[in-house]
Amino acid sequence: MKILLTGANGYIGMRLLPKLLDMGHSVVCAVRDEKRLSVDAKTRSKIDVVEVDFLDDPEKHQVPKDIDAAYYLIHSMASSVTDFDEKEAQAAKNFNTILGNTQCKQVIYLSGIVNDEELSKHLSSRKNVEEILYKGPFDVTVLRAGIIVGSGSSSFEIIRDLCEKLPVMITPKWVLTKTQPIAIRDVIQFLTEVLGNKETYDQSFDIGGPDILTYKDMLHGYAKVRGFKNWIFTVPVMTPKLSSYWLYFVTSTSYKLAMNLVDSMKMEVVAQDNRLQEMLGIETHTYEEAIDLAFKKIEQNLVISSWKDSIASGQIKEDLENYIQVPKYGVLRDKKSIRIKDEEAVLKNVWRIGGENGWYYGNWLWKVRGFLDKLVGGPGLRRGRTHPDKIFPGDALDFWRVLLADKKSKRLLLFAEMKTPGEAWLEFKIEDGVLNQTATFRPKGLLGRLYWYSVLPFHLFIFGNMIKNIAKTD
Q1: CB atoms within 10 A of CB 47
Q2: Taking a C-beta distance cutoff of 8 angstroms, is the pair 101, 61 a contact?
């Protein structure tokens, strides 16, 4: 079958793509920016890519007319607190229009479980998207899931941050809300097995794991798998806003996502039936098995995708292309160079920068800068990096965003998503046996210049020692 995969660069899309290829399908990935599709050369040679922004005028975009089926994996929850539901509705309408010009027979949509009559804005938006898709000129299969647990998922990373950093927690009362978590590999199995299955056409199904747990149970369950204890005390006085700030400062989530998550966590999310599971004969994993499987992926460096790599998790509001040309005029620059002996070994060091490996010098100072960034609404350092030694354009890298990662030209270009009174780039490039490290800052007014000169003394020894340590290969 020829399949259109929307949201191909997202957390679910990146997990689904290799499965579809393994099944022998022809896949067309729909992304806003082809340069951001984080796949290796081997995978890239097996797929077709079309650039489509489903929030744009649908007349501007086309997809192949011989599409047999499509996956709708477009969500906007992390990008806005106020109008994400309007964006999601518009994207769905435009999707219907664009797919109306194809021979697509089935659309598969991953939605959220809706139990309550009074839904959160997030779940109400997901339900509204379902209703819009059902109006399209194709059959629809909707899979409704609750908490998805897997390496790199937002839910897993939040639980991980909370449990690993806070052995004792004072929590809001929403931690007593019931939910039904499901392992990411089970979600992928459901998504692939309904493909082309006419018994599932024009129906909505709840999918969930075998455990119905409170969020408190999930925190305790994580600690059990990891081999330690944690203590959780609930209080009724923590407002949604305070809860959002609590998640934002303790975990790697953005404030916008935290706000929307807290709004949804007040709602019970439990599967109403197991029709699809029985129909397909799928045996789902328990919550603790899902946690254990996630850590096996992490330990083997096999994490395919992470929610933190979404552009919506950072500060960039436009295409990455708009930031790749580092400005030459009206900027302040710190450039350092050092002669090296082994270009390939040094390039490996550059490609391992950030995350668990750190920044090669003064890691505690980078952590202080990350903490200060969190205080003013930035991402801080908690996003880390998805892969220990692989980098793709668009990836999150602590409080930077990867603009360019070209091993052939031996160049890595990062753009700062930390809160600063200006725009900042950090570039590493190897040419003719020389490693060049350039920090470029375009200040916004006088405040921007004062900021640059206030941190310049730190740059002198941080950047100077950083390039020396990157250049070491023995």
Answers
A1: 17
A2: no
Average pLDDT, the chain: 83
Three-state SS annotation for the chain: CEEEEECCCCHHHHHHHHHHHHCCCEEEEEECCHHHCCCCHHHHCCCEEEECCCCCCHHHCCCCCCCCEEEECCCCHHHCCCCHHHHHHHHHHHHHHHHCCCCCCEEEEEEECCCCCCCCHHHHHHHHHHHHHCCCCCEEEEEEECCEECCCCHHHHHHHHHHHHCCEEEEEHHHHCEECCEEHHHHHHHHHHCCCCHHHCCEEEEECCCCCEEHHHHHHHHHHHHCCCCEEEEECCCCHHHHHHHHHHHCCCCHHHHHHHHHHHCCCECCCCCHHHHHHCCCCCCHHHHHHHHHHHHHCCCCCCCHHHCHHHCCCCCCCHHHHCCCCCCCEEEEEEEECCCHHHHHHHHHCCCHHHCCCCCHHHHHHHHHHHHHCCCCCCCCCCCCCCCCCCCCEECCEEEEEEECCCCEEEEEECCCCCEEEEEEEEEECCEEEEEEEEEECHHHHHHHHHHHHHHHHHHHHHHHHHHHCCC
Is residue 304 pLDDT above 50, yes or no? Answer: no
Token readout for 55 is 């929030």
Contact in structure between 153 and 110 (CB atoms under 8 Å): no
> How do beta strands 26-31 and 434-443 pair?
unpaired
Which tens digits make up the pLDDT trace of 252-297? 666 666 666 666 666 788 888 888 998 999 999 999 999 888 877 7
Distances (CA, A) of 146 to 154, 212, 268: 12, 11, 9
Structure tokens of 162? 């909370």
Q: How far apart are CA 283 and CA 272, in angstroms?
A: 17
Token pair recorded at residue 320: 């990455």
pLDDT at 301: 43
Tens of pLDDT along 43-93? 888 999 998 888 888 777 788 999 999 999 987 644 444 566 788 888 899
Q: In angstroms, what CA-CA distances link 326 with 340, 353, 413?
A: 25, 20, 9
